[in-house]
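Task 17 of the worksheet. Students: predict the tertiary structure of the chain below and write it out as structure tokens. Keep your answer in the requested format; marks are given for formatting as well as content.
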Amino acid sequence: MTELPCACLVCSDAPVGRDDRIVDTVRQHGWSALRVEGGLSFAYTVGLWHTFRRPEIVMFGLDGENMQHWLNACVDRGRAHGWPEPGEPFEGVLQGFETQLRPVHESWRDALFGTAHRFYGGFEVPVLQLVWPDRDGHWPWTDGATPSSRNRQAFAWLPVSEHPAGAWRLVGELEPGFPFPVGPDSLALTTAAVLDGERPIARVSLDDGAYDVLDERGYDADDLCLAFLGDLVVRYPQVTAAADLGEGQVAISGDDQVWLRAGQSPSDSRASQRAWESAQPR
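Model answer:
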């Protein structure tokens, strides 16, 4: 069977644009390992399909630079010793720990792999997830796994619609196209009453890169907490009207759901800082 020609930016005459560094790296080394920083970070390869006709690899939830290193180690290990079947132990990537490779469900592609989509000219290449265990060797889907290892990794082998609720589910559902300049997995300061639908959102502010989404009690509320911004958007779509706030601005909900803009007062900025220091995730 004749192999289909590669339509990536290395092989085609398409303009490289902002991906010039990735193209240069793939030409020189065969692949590039990218990191994407956010509320939770992830990293993935670009170029494995072009160079080796192997699936790209993604890793979630650890330090971005370290994940780039481990992805490169994964590729080197696979090339030198052979690639395991999905779900089989894969040793030699994380020192002292086994890993696994699992196929990523296609429903995650738009949310996570925009750069790969551009690089391959829209051609949907397969992707494998490099899964890591907790310190005791428990896989994230097992009962004994630590909450950190379970929550920091997407279960990307599942369809987005079947993923457990949480940060990665929000990323899968709301990206790309989330209207705020931060991701849906970013934490926001809010109140339990807002989350429970007991009080409407009265004000949204942006201070030091973080959003406060509060009811009419403001920083005097006794139930201040942290929640994912994407969760608030799902519950209150009207809050996206404040997505274009500038740093140090506040939007106050007025009549007919009109948001009135003003500058955040110094006292409110100090109150916000104190609240962020003490509030806990809901």
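Marker's comment: The CA atoms of residues 21 and 277 lie 39 Å apart. The first helix runs from residue 20 to 29.
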